[in-house]
Amino acid sequence: MNHYDTIKKLFAQTLAERPGSYIVEELFTRFSSIADLMSVTEQELMQIKGIGKVRAKQILAALELARKLNVPAESPYIIRSPRDVAKLLIPEMRYLQCEHFVVLFLNTKNGVIARETISIGSLNALIVHPREVFRSSIKRSSASIIVAHNHPSGNPSPSTDDVQITQRLVEGGNIIGIEVLDHVIIGGDQYYSMKEHGLM
């Protein structure tokens, strides 16, 4: 049994759930790596149906136990190009029916240390507050970030709002000292990199 399976079994026991129950499976679908699990917050956990404040605290306690047992993290996924971002996100974002805004938090070697969905919008609209993006970035001690969102229409071309929020995030990152490397838009099996197209 590998470390990830060990943690999964530990969570099932902590929550008095079967390993294949909805809560356990949803937990490990949303936070699909050890790095994601180790940086999860109580608020993120409570977004999962069936997890209230008490269960969220149980999960955080199990995570703290895992840290004390010194469970090693897996090697982070390295981002070398927008294509790497697309390969990571397209499988889970291509079928979403409303817009999701995701942040990839990177270390100094462009390895993904965590991933978080910051905002979920409607079919064709999304509200993103830079403060939410950078609050999470600072919490995770990110060296830099890449932001991404999906277009349910399947067309990854950016809207005027997409360009404007990107500019606001870049400006905020420059002030705080956390560089925004790219904004990648996912549309079906296609992607659009604002960095590659000179929009940031």
Describe the structure.
With 200 residues, this protein is an alpha+beta fold. The protein folds into two domains: 3-68, DNA polymerase, domain 1 (Orthogonal Bundle), CATH 1.10.150; 77-193, Cytidine Deaminase, domain 2, CATH 3.40.140.10. It contains eight helices and six strands. It has helices at residues 3-14, 22-30, 34-38, 42-45, 53-68, 82-93, 130-139, 160-176, and strands at 77-78, 100-106, 111-120, 144-150, 179-187, 190-193. The longest helix is centred in the last third of the chain and has 17 residues, at 160-176. It is globular. 32% of the residues are buried. The model has no long low-confidence stretch (mean pLDDT 85).
Cα-to-Cα separation, first versus last residue: 45 Å
How much of the sequence lies in strands comes to 15-25%
CATH topology of the largest domain: Cytidine Deaminase, domain 2
Q: Which radius of gyration do the C-alpha atoms yield? A: 17 Å
How are the strands of the biggest sheet laid out side by side? Answer: 1-3-2-4-5-6
**What's the architecture of the largest domain in CATH terms?**
3-Layer(aba) Sandwich
The backbone outline, from C-alpha atoms, is: globular
**Total E-strand runs:** 6
Q: In the residues, how many domains can be counted?
A: 2
Overall residue-averaged pLDDT value: 85
By secondary-structure content and strand pairing, the structural class works out as: alpha+beta
Pattern of helices and strands: HHHHHEHEEHEHEE
Fourth CATH level, the homologous superfamily of the largest domain: Cytidine Deaminase, domain 2
Largest sheet: 6 strands, mixed
Proportion of helical residues? 40-55%
- The CATH C-level class name of the largest domain: Alpha Beta
Identify low-pLDDT runs.
Answer: none
| Tally of individual helices | 8
